[in-house]
Amino acid sequence: MDSTADQSYGGAIFPTVPEDIIQTQILNRADGVTLATASCVSKELRSLCSDDELWRRICNSTWRSTEDSRLREMIAEFPAGYRSFYSDAFPIAGCRRPGAVTAARELISAVDIYFDGRVVYSKVLESETVSSWFRSSPFIIDLFDQKETPGSLILPGEFFSGGEHRLSLSWILIDPYTKRAINVASSSKAVEVRRRLLDSDSDNDVDTQLRYATAVESGRDEMVECVVSITCRSDGDRKVRLRQVSLQFEDMDGKILAGKDCMRIMAEAMEGKRRKGRCAGESESEYEMFMSMKERRKEKKIQVEKRLEMMIIVAVEICVVLAFSLVVMPLSIKGCIIA
After folding, report:
1. Which regions of the chain are under pLDDT 50?
2. What is the pTM (predicted TM-score) of this model?
């Protein structure tokens, strides 16, 4: 029955249109979600939609960083090439897969920064993860080293009047050994914006720090915050220069996690299920839930500290009473007897 339905429906979708026209004139214009949906319609379309060249173009148009030669070689080794990479990196990370997972020996970061949906900066960065220094130190990946000059981003003047909310980013982490990837920061809106006027001759020299955050499941009733900070410097020439871009993971107490803990969380997230599609509202809802959990945890911690403080006060008072009864009272009684 399924086979008959597939033939009668799939074979008659484009009865007079050649396959090369379907592929070059129709499928070439589709985005990744449309292409994935079309592949479920029939065997014929599934075969056409599995063309790796189609998925390469979609990945390149979505993330300019995938044009990097190192990344091209890595993606070519994924089970289904660019289609596998897209299915890993495009959806929002879902439930983690706890258990015995192997942490990555190396991480590849593919970072893209957008303004109004247009890519304005891309970079691919390699990070080692096996040294004892990395595993025990706070997990922080800096996109630029101290000697690197990222250059200038020539952005529209709207950036200087609230346009920073039109700056978005994508940060994909790739494990080249397990051939898996996860987008740990894909946000269209900064959750926090801070401005600082610089001590200079011009009143237009301003540092703007944007904070992007995504909630990631880390354990039972526990979540961590994946934070990307972007620092831009704007000057009187109406130019915006990238000064710093960094990635880190923070727990619900605001503490930066160590490398070994982050690698475990990311390995489980890479092996976990992905959600169907990609919804910014769903991501924002999860982050709001994380912030609510964080606030409740903070309030609970304050209550515990207050109880502990009261217990200390009571204990001190008891000690004072005992000291009075054991030292002062005997001396008073002895004095009375002598008198």
Report:
1. 1-12, 277, 279-280
2. 0.76
Rounded to 5 degrees, what angle do the CA atoms 240, 147, 261 make?
90
Are 31 and 59 spatial neighbours (Cβ–Cβ below 8 Å)? no
C-alpha 97: how far from its chain's center?
A: 17
Residues 6+ apart with CB under 8 A from 95: 217, 272, 273
Q: Roughly what angle, to the nearest 10 degrees, separates helices 52-62 and 82-89?
A: 40
| 167-217: pLDDT as tens digits | 888 999 999 888 999 888 876 678 888 887 776 655 567 788 888 888 777
**CB-side neighbour CA atoms (13 Å) of 324:** 6
CA 107 – CA 143 distance, rounded (Å): 13
Please give the full DSSP string across 45-108, using - where no structure is assigned: HHHHHT-HHHHHHHHHHH-GGGGSHHHHHHHTTSTTTHHHHHHHHSSPB-----SS-PPPSEEE
